[in-house]
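Consider this one:
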Amino acid sequence: MASRILTPSLRAVSRSAAPLPIRTSRTFQTSSRRMDTATTVAVPVRKPVGAFRGGLVGFLLGATAAGTLVYTYILDEYKVSNELLTEDIYVRQCI
């Protein structure tokens, strides 16, 4: 509905407006001075720090920390259960 209302006014504007010049070709040129400055500026070469390498190092550190914590937990549980078993064996021998 709104498009029918606006259509006559757009037609009137398009008739009164002067046509825009159309460029058929476009050149991509640079002056010699600009080309000289572009070649003299040296871009510093940086060693790339990849996300893959950072992710791999993070994974290995996390896995090592988790493994260490699990190992200490299991070792403590083993010591506690071994002490309880040893006490139970001594109690059975004394009876």
About this structure: The chain has a mean pLDDT of 76. The radius of gyration is 40 Å. The chain is about 70% helix and 0% strand.
